[in-house]
Amino acid sequence: MVVIATPELTCFRIQKEHDFIVLSSDGIFDKLSNKEAIQCCWNSTRDDLQENVHKQSSLAVEYVLKNALLRRTMDNVTVVLIAFANFKH
Questions:
Q1: What is the spatial distance between Cα 51 and Cα 88, in angstroms, rounded to a whole number?
Q2: Distance between CA 29 and CA 37 in Å, rounded?
Q3: Spatial distance between the Cα atoms of 48 and 44, rounded to a whole number of angstroms
Q4: Core-most of 1, 2, 4, 22, by most CB within 10 Å?
Q5: How far apart are CA 16 and CA 41, in angstroms?
Q6: By the 8 A CB rule, do 85 and 53 touch?
Q7: Whole-number Å distance between alpha carbons of 76 and 69
């Protein structure tokens, strides 16, 4: 097993149409693609729309974590979701 200390970085300007940003450890992205992680977040809004963005964000993180664990990730799993006000819409 090889451990590297070089993170994958992306720079971009946050636009009005952005709904959220997902930051995760490699234990998540070893099992989920970027698109799949984003889809987990959207599925959380479809399956159980919460009354506020904080609860919806928590549910979205739970969906991402559970999906990686269901795919038997063996690495550390950390997810941070930065949600903007329009995430729950």
A1: 8
A2: 8
A3: 6
A4: 22
A5: 18
A6: yes
A7: 10
